[in-house]
């Protein structure tokens, strides 16, 4: 009997070794960033069985069989739609500046999506202004309203948006709403879905969260885009979810969320509408490719260089595209870089790019919220401060609430603005969208807003930072090990 148990023990040890070896080989052969692979192997070895289960659940970009098949089948029809934009009079490569042209070339070569001129952009920087502008445009809608958000949280002005949508549907406007299942969990548990569907509005729950799906699709893959398109003429995108900060996470201890949205008219509206159509088809299988924009040739009194490049990312779309655009923008900087982001866990490439910019005398500023709603991200973020400060990067901690604005301004002349955080989740996992804007007037307004954030912030002093406690340093290093996964 003793020999039998010894055999069982050796079989168990061999099975355990085979499991760990198989998962390790799988991690290595995925050919991701080295830091990501090392972080997963550390988890697998430190927490053997739990680490393997965690990797199978969260370690690979698994969209689910049906969605993955749809995404593969959709890519070429949507790429063809994007490529048709090159025939639009708003596609004027000869009018693009030296900074817009490389970004345009990258996006055209990766998936056929060009930058377009002839847009009109309005920066909305307060919750009241954003939501009341959105309500007014909904009230004036003539035929269609498409909304897509990560979070819809009931309460305050967000409820007034819901009422406006119901009224629009009752007067014959076609309304489609796509909301992320996890981000909008509170909404889906409220009375609002019944009211909205009862008014004839199409409401779809994207990437439904269910324990039965955990081995079929990666559960932390989220639909993080925020896009509104009204009548194919007006669009909104930016960092703000459909929430009233006075009612959202009021007990989190981080203050009210601070966000921006951009109201857009012009050919870029159709591009954002096409991205919404992509997300709708991935989730439902229904295709609603929008009409191509009716571009007008810019008149002589309009700015010569005024390009908007939309850059979407996510499963089914070209890998790493927003990360590439970020790196390209930073390397093009000649004078200054100002970045605002709520979650700061940069890749090694972004970290080196920011440090290298500061070391070549570029004035680099990073503005982060002083208090964060994610403890792990907060500690991981701090682990990068020392290296950045030593390189001459200025770090500011914003005291006016949870700074949720995601923006990058280069040389006060061009900018990036959208839904993308500077963390691994946004850059490699979620469905995201950002815009590269080469418009001097708009960039100046965004730059002024960033400076108002800095004025309401406390700079991190390099000498004082090095005096922080050993306990804090240990916490930072511990969470740094998991930073490639955050």
Summarize the structure.
This protein is an alpha/beta fold. The chain is built from 18 helices and 18 strands.
What do you see in this structure?
The protein has helices at residues 2-29, 34-46, 48-58, 65-84, 100-111, 127-139, 157-170, 185-188, 192-198, 268-284, 321-332, 348-359, 375-382, 385-391, 424-429, 440-455, 462-466, 470-480, and strands at residues 116-117, 120-124, 144-149, 174-180, 202-206, 227-230, 234-238, 257-258, 261-265, 307-313, 336-340, 363-369, 394-398, 402-403, 407-410, 414-418, 432-438, 457-459. The protein has 486 residues and is of the alpha/beta class. A nine-stranded mixed β-sheet has the order 1-10-17-16-15-11-12-13-18, with helices on both faces. The protein has a seven-stranded mixed β-sheet with strand order 2-9-7-6-3-4-5, sandwiched between helices. Strand 15 (407-410) and strand 16 (414-418) form a beta hairpin. Helix 4 runs antiparallel to helix 10 (268-284), helix 5 runs antiparallel to helix 11 (321-332) and helix 11 (321-332) packs parallel to helix 12. It is found in: Cell membrane. Belongs to the phospholipase D family. Cardiolipin synthase subfamily. ClsA sub-subfamily. One of its GO terms (cellular component) is plasma membrane.
